[in-house]
């Protein structure tokens, strides 16, 4: 963009109970993008469906200078997350929101952050397209809108004129991606450095999801004592006959009861606990990858790499680099 060109206009639509942090992402990231002569590359404004103040998810209300007419002027429209959008849009778009979205010009770039994707979905704007949302809502998203090609693991999905992201920090990733797409890596990298965030991140949302380890912490049930014992011996070979014998059950009975009490087979459960142990060791210790693999019960670094790649989309070294830095 030359100094005589107008900035790319971004309209952020704040809905009732908008998530406060995500509302601020577009202004912070796009607003930090400058051209070679220091010129502003984006103009970011916020509007509501009726121009009136709206409460946020935090303990404050925002007032805006614009109503829905701003959407008709925008080059990019951003929809941040708001509280309980899945439930609020279950019966379709409220009339004021539908009327506001109808003002968007054809060809306008549409962007959602986190559960803002539910608005695009309810409007039919994601039908037949790949999209993502926060991993915790991905299953409900896919069930509610089966015509969407949901990728629950992606940090963000770029489908040309429609882009969606996972939650919170993934919205930052998406905004940086758009700056990179619009103006190149050097501009995006400067914004990232100034904001103290990585210019890009490895892996997908799975590295941030909560592994289902609750059953490991619950000593109840007939297999509880064996599970508690197994957690203290993850570095050792643990076979199904060994665990069944320790529980004083046949392999068949042990397997059936184990699944009833944990929702997983013994083998699945062990792999999950070993993965979680490896994550803890990578985050909290200076052990080598080989040592982590042995202590977590995977035996070799190659086996550990295979498991983390499959479950978290990251090799051990990248996982450690990401989460040691985050800690």
In what order do the strands lie side by side in the largest sheet? Answer: 2-1-5-6-10-9
Low-confidence stretches: 210-217
**Name of the CATH homologous superfamily of the largest domain:** Class I glutamine amidotransferase (GATase) domain
Q: Kindly state the mean pLDDT as a whole number?
A: 89
So what's the overall shape? elongated
Share of β-strand residues:
5-15%
CATH architecture assignment of the largest domain: 3-Layer(aba) Sandwich
Distance between the first and last residues' Cα: 39 Å
CATH topology of the largest domain: Rossmann fold
CATH class designation of the largest domain? Alpha Beta
Report the total helices: 15
Tell me the count of domains: 2
Largest sheet: 6 strands, mixed
Total number of strands:
10
Order of helices and strands: EHEEEEHHEHEHEEEHHHHHHHHHH
Strand-pairing-aware structural class: alpha/beta
Radius of gyration over all CA atoms, rounded: 24 Å
Helix content: 40-55%
GO molecular function, one term: DNA-binding transcription factor activity
Organism: Streptomyces tateyamensis
Keywords: Transcription, Transcription regulation
Domain HTH araC/xylS-type: 224-322
């Amino acid at each position: 963009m030359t100094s005589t060109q107008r900035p790319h206009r971004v309209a952020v639509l704040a809905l009732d109970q908008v998530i406060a942090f995500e509302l601020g992402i577009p202004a912070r990231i796009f607003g930090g993008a400058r051209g070679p002569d220091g010129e502003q590359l984006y103009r970011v404004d916020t509007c509501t469906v009726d121009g009136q103040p709206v409460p946020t998810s935090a303990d404050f209300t925002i007032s805006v200078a614009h109503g829905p007419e701003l959407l008709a002027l925008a080059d990019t429209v951003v929809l941040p997350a708001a509280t309980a959008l899945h439930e609020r849009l279950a019966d379709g778009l409220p009339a004021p929101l539908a009327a506001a979205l109808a003002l968007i010009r054809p060809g306008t770039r549409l962007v959602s952050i986190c559960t803002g994707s539910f608005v695009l979905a309810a409007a039919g704007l994601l039908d037949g397209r790949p999209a993502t949302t926060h991993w915790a809502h991905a299953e409900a998203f896919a069930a509610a809108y089966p015509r969407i090609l949901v990728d629950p693991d992606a940090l963000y999905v770029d489908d040309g004129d429609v882009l969606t992201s996972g939650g919170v920090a993934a919205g930052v990733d998406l905004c940086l991606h758009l700056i990179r797409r619009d103006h190149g890596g050097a501009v995006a990298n400067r914004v990232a450095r100034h904001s103290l965030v990585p210019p890009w991140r490895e892996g997908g949302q799975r590295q941030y999801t909560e592994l289902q380890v609750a059953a490991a912490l619950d000593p109840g049930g007939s297999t509880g004592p064996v599970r508690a014992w197994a957690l203290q011996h993850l570095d050792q070979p643990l076979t199904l006959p060994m665990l069944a014998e320790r529980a004083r059950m046949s392999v068949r009975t042990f397997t059936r009861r184990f699944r009833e009490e944990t929702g997983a087979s013994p083998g699945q459960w062990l792999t999950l606990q070993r993965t979680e142990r490896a994550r803890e060791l990578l985050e909290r210790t200076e052990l080598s990858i080989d040592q982590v693999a042995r202590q977590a019960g995977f035996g070799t670094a190659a086996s550990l790499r295979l498991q983390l790649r499959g479950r978290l989309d990251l090799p051990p070294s990248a996982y450690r680099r990401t989460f040691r830095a985050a800690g």
